[in-house]
Structures are given as structure tokens and as C-alpha cells.
Amino acid sequence: MSEKGKIGIIGSGLIGQSWAMLFASAHYNVVIYDVNLEQVNTALEKIKSELITMEKNNIIRGSLSAEQQIERITGVIKLEEVIENAILIQECIPEVLAMKQQLYDQIDKIIGSLTIISSSTSTFLPSVLSEKMEHRNQLIVSHPVNPPYFVPLVEIVPSEWTEDWVIKKTRTIMEDIKQSPVTLAKEIPGFALNRIQYAILNECWHLVNDGVLNVKDIDTVMSEGLGMRYAFLGPFETAHLNAEGFMNYTERYSNSMFGVCKQFKPAPKFEGPLVTVIADQLNSITSLEEIPNRRLWRDQSLIKLSQLKKYNH
């Protein structure tokens, strides 16, 4: 047992594997659970291969070697074994509410009063996940961004009954593994990242629908414009720097901003003929067959960006 203790990972898919590597990089002992041994062993092999490759490319996280990190990660197929003596359980099973609630019902019968139950969900509010649990005050959402190993944001979302120690300790652990946590003061559908993302997507939909820009040009607005800024600064600090402080920014631009925003349309439902129009344009940029290669390019670009951000902090 390491001096930092044991982390349990429930679900051995890509997100579970990423979490395992993050915790191991920070000297935690990690136990991965899944329903059958083949899935667990496949995950352990993928983690081993990934860590060795990242070490060769000098992008592995933490001060431990790949071999030392691999030694810290083991697998089990009994739920009791992943939960026993864990300081935090990170749940990473598919986004199916009935599956999650069934799992939490099982966890509830086993878990002690000092273990944090942390969900990777991007969909469900912690109160919905935990409402029927005896240990509901120990459940919290820690929503990562894919791929978590290179995109460090974690949204920590408590329910109204999540205890303060759970919120504080979860954030401390996320900071300890060198992620960048934000703690929501209360739960809200979509959390923060998806709400902001949806606002952008909604306006992009309208710009295509109204014939203002095509898909490629809209994506250029983000990748070659706003995205360049937002890779290092958020929207509020961007505004702060684009004038003589935020007070000055509002004095200069609040009226014109309000005038534009009053023209915004209601949230669209992404359905109907425009879905095909957008999909066809995207397929002409990146065909369905090319998506795996494009994802790989995206992830490699994120690696380079994360290294650049690390050196510029």
C-alpha cells in the first residue's frame, strides 16, 4: 500500500484507463474492476502499452517510470475487492441511468463511511444517481474531459446532500494528480462545460441554417480565432485584457453586446434536414473512414498543447 492509499476504478474502458494512469502517476495504488477478467486484462495491457509509449516519447506524467506506474495498477472482478480500503471510487461505466443506479445499489451495501463515490458521468445529476442510496452523502460527480490524460479539467459537482468533506477531499485528490478541478456550488443540468459548449453549438447551428457561414468557416472562427485565445485564457479574462480592465470593457461594449444578443434565436433541436447538410459538409472535410486518424491527430495536438501550457504557466 502506498502512502497515499488506494483508488478504485469501476469500468475498464478508455476513461477508466485514463483515470488509472492519472492516479498511478501521482503515487496512488489503483485497482480496476470490471465484470469479466478478459476486459480487465485487456485494459491492463492497453495501459501498459500506453505508458511505455508515452515514456519513450517523454510525455508520461509524474516522477515515476512507466514500469513503476504499471506496478501500481492491478485488476479484479469482485466488486468487494475494488471497494475495500479505497479512499475514492471512480465510476466509469456506460451512461445508462438504470445501470448506474443498479451499480450504486450494490456499492451501497458494501461501502464504508469514509470512501468517496465519484462518478465520471457527463449526463446525470449526482442527486439522481444517489437519491435512493443510504450513503448518498458520499457521492459526487467528477466529470473529466476526453482525453483526461491531456485535457486536465475536472468538473466536481456535489448534490445538495453531498458532505463538505467529500467535496474538499475530492478536489484535493484531483489537484494532487495534477488535474485542474472546478467545483460547482450546486448541481445544474449539463454542468458548466457542456452548457458553454451547447451555447456555442446552438449559435453555430443558426449561422449555418441562416446561410451566414458554412461548416468549415464556422470551425475556422473557433480554431483560428476564439480557440487560440481560449487555449490560455477564459472569456472573462479575455474581455478584461481586451480593454483597460473588465469595468472598461462593459462601459465600451455592453450596449452593442446586448443589441446583438437580443437577436439570438431560441435553442434549436438538432434534427431535420439541416443535420444532413452539416453532416455532408463534415464528411467532405473528414470522411467517416478518416475519423480514427483525425482523432489521433487531435490527441497528438492536445499533447503538444498541454506541454506548451505546462511550460507557460
Q: List the domain count as a whole number.
A: 2
User: What structural class should be given to the helix and strand makeup?
Assistant: alpha/beta
CATH topology of the largest domain: Rossmann fold
Overall form: globular
The strand order across the widest sheet is 3-2-1-4-5-6-7-8
Number of strands: 8
The succession of helices and strands, N to C, reads EHEHHEHEHEHEEHEHHHHHH
CATH class descriptor name of the largest domain:
Alpha Beta
Main beta sheet: strand number and arrangement? Answer: 8 strands, mixed
Helix content: 40-55%
Taking Cα atoms only, what radius of gyration do you get, to the nearest Å? 22 Å
CATH architecture of the largest domain: 3-Layer(aba) Sandwich
Q: Strand content of the residues, in percent?
A: 5-15%
Amino-to-carboxy terminus distance: 33 Å
Description:
This protein has 313 residues and is an alpha/beta fold. The chain is built from 13 helices and eight strands. The chain has helices at residues 14-25, 37-56, 66-71, 79-83, 97-110, 126-130, 164-176, 193-209, 215-230, 235-241, 246-261, 273-285, 291-312; strands spanning 6-10, 29-33, 73-76, 86-91, 116-119, 139-144, 153-158, 180-183. An eight-stranded mixed sheet has the order 3-2-1-4-5-6-7-8. Helix 1 links the parallel strand 1 and strand 2. The protein is globular, with a radius of gyration of 22 Å. The relative contact order is 0.08. The mean pLDDT is 96. Residues 190-259 form the 3-hydroxyacyl-CoA dehydrogenase C-terminal domain. The record marks 143 as: Important for catalytic activity.
